[in-house]
Amino acid sequence: MTPTDAPAGPASGTHPADPAGTLCDADFPVTGMTCAACSGRVARALGKLPGVADVSVNLATHRASLRYDPARLVPSKILSTVTEAGYGAEPESLFIEISPALGPGDDRRVTEALAGVPGVVGVSLVPSLSRAEVSCLGGEGLAERLLEALSRAGFSGRVESVAGSPEAGSGELALLVRDLTIAALLSFPLVLLSMAGSRIPGLTRILPDATARHILEGALALAVFLGPGRRFLGPGLRAYRHLSPDMNSLVATGTGAALLYSLLVSLAPGLFPEADRHVYFDTTGMVITVILLGRTLEARARRRTGDALAAFAALVPDRAERLSEGTWQSVSVRDLLPGDLVRVPAGERIPADGVVVRGQARVDLSSMTGEPMPVSVRADSRVFCGTSPTDGALEILVEAVGDQTRLSGIVRAVLRAQGAKLPVEALADRVVAFFTPAVLFVSLATFLLWFFFDPSGKGLIHGLESAVAVLLVACPCAMGLATPAAVMVATGRAARLGILFRRGESLEALSRVGTVCFDKTGTLTQGSPAVVDRAAVSGETLEGLLSLAAGMESASTHPLGRAIVEAARREGRTPSPVEEVTVVPGRGLRGIFEGQTVLLGSRRLLRENGIDLGEMEERGADWERGASTVVYVAREGRILGALALNDPLRPESPEVADRLRGMGLSLVLVTGDGKGPASAVAETLGISELHAGCDPLEKGTIVGSAVARGERVAFVGDGINDAPALASATVGLALSSGTGVAVETADVTLAGPGLSRLPAAIALSRQTLRTIRLNLVWAFGYNILLIPLAAGAARPFWGIALTPMMAGAAMGLSSVLVVGNSLRLAGFARGTSIDGSFTAPLREFSGGTGGEP
Question: Which end of the chain, N or C, is more open, meaning fewer C-beta atoms within 10 Å of its C-beta?
Answer without folding.
Answer: N
